[in-house]
């Protein structure tokens, strides 16, 4: 029984140390400590904003390319003369 109490006491002490380590460091405004993590945070967000803009532009470009390719395919297939009696084959028809 004494072992269980000692184990519980040790666990409580370790939990207090872990919680103290997890708490953010209190730094007074205007001191030297606030700049580094704040600058890192801002830099990360700026980089993420740049990446987001590039992804949006890439997606818009790819959408326009796909639309133009689909229009080209549609125009070429509508202009192909079909001989009477030829069975039509749908290339997009999934038989599986």
Give an overview of the whole structure.
This protein has 96 residues and is mainly alpha-helical. It is 71% helix and 0% strand. It contains 2 helices and no strands. The chain has helices at 2-22, 33-79. The longest helix is centred in the middle third of the chain and has 47 residues, at 33-79. The radius of gyration is 33 Å and the shape is elongated. The model is unreliable at 19-23 (pLDDT under 50).
What distance separates the N and C termini? 68 Å
The whole-number mean of residue pLDDT values reads 75
Helix share of residues?
over 70%
Structural class of the helix and strand makeup? mainly alpha
Order of helices and strands: HH
What is the beta-strand fraction?
under 5%
Number of helices: 2
Largest beta-sheet details:
none
- Unreliable sequence segments: 19-23
Number of strands: 0
Radius of gyration, Cα only, in angstroms? 33 Å
Shape: elongated
Quick overview of this protein structure:
The chain has 96 residues and is an all-alpha fold.
What are the key terms here?
96 residues; mainly alpha; 2 helices; 71% helix
List the helices and strands and how they pair.
Layout: H1 2-22, H2 33-79
């Amino acid at each position: 029984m004494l072992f269980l109490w000692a184990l519980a006491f040790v666990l409580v002490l370790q939990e207090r140390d872990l919680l103290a380590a997890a708490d953010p460091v209190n730094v007074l405004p205007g001191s030297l400590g606030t700049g580094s993590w704040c600058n890192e945070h801002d830099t990360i967000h700026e980089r993420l904003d740049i990446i987001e803009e590039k992804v949006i532009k890439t997606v818009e470009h790819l959408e326009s390319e796909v639309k133009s390719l689909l229009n080209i395919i549609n125009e070429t297939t509508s202009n192909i003369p079909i001989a009477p009696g030829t069975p039509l084959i749908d290339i997009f028809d999934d038989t599986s």
